[in-house]
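Our preliminary data section would be incomplete without showing what the modeling component actually yields. Below, a chain of 275 amino acids is followed by its predicted structure, encoded as tokens that our downstream tools consume directly.
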Amino acid sequence: MEAIFKDFDFYSARNAEHVYFHENASLIFTESFASTYGLTDLREQYIAAVTAESAKHVSNPAYLDTPELQSLDRARDNVFYLIAHVAEAYLSYAFKTEDTEAANLIVYLMSPYRKAAAMSYLEETAVLADFYSKLLSDEYAEALATLHLSEAAAEGKRLNDEFNELYKKRSAEVLGRTVSATMKELRTATDTAFKALADAVNALYLVYATITKDETKAAELKAVIDGVNALIVQLRQVIQQRGGNANELPDSTPVTPDTDDSSSSTEEDDMPEEL
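Predicted structure:
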């Protein structure tokens, strides 16, 4: 008898794999399908659980590190190094006394900030903000002009300020997606909601296929069952291919789909949490 493999153990799925499966499975249980078969409440509970789990997964701090942030970080690092290297070059090789004096002043100022570019985003932002507040003060204006670094100093401050604004914006976005429950709790809630919906679909198929013998509705339900089971088979293959444990499926397993294990992740934060 056709049935969704609701007893498949999702424990061995990594977080990214778990989210990927349920996001795709939820698309199969369409709003119109749920409405037709009186499954709206169960579907909404499942969708809410999937959404919460996905939000928690995406709220991982790694998602703060966007290409735009990385680009701004490189740009501000480059300007900082430019100022440092130019000042050091003048200090080592300048033949004019005023150039040497100006370089010495700036090199001395930069000394406590030399490792700024190797710091975390927040630390570097704070350190550079302090550095540029001093460098762009009247005390260093003449030295910057002498070494032709006035524009570079202003650009360095602008880039650091821009980075800070973007970082705060990204942090607020991530905070808005963050939920209080742990990933393990959210995975459990998603699996529970999925099994409740699967139970209902399986029961309806049994009714229409064997009792009322409504071929049209039985076919619609079978299509949903086969679609979800194909995703389960695919997930099971992904888990097995990386050496994970996956429980056996019933003999009614549908034809194995081509496996695309691009959803798998090797990141440590994608590993399932300890039970």
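Residues 252-275 have pLDDT under 50 and may be disordered. The chain has two domains: 15-59+183-270, 64-177. Preliminary results of this kind motivate Aim 1 of the renewal.
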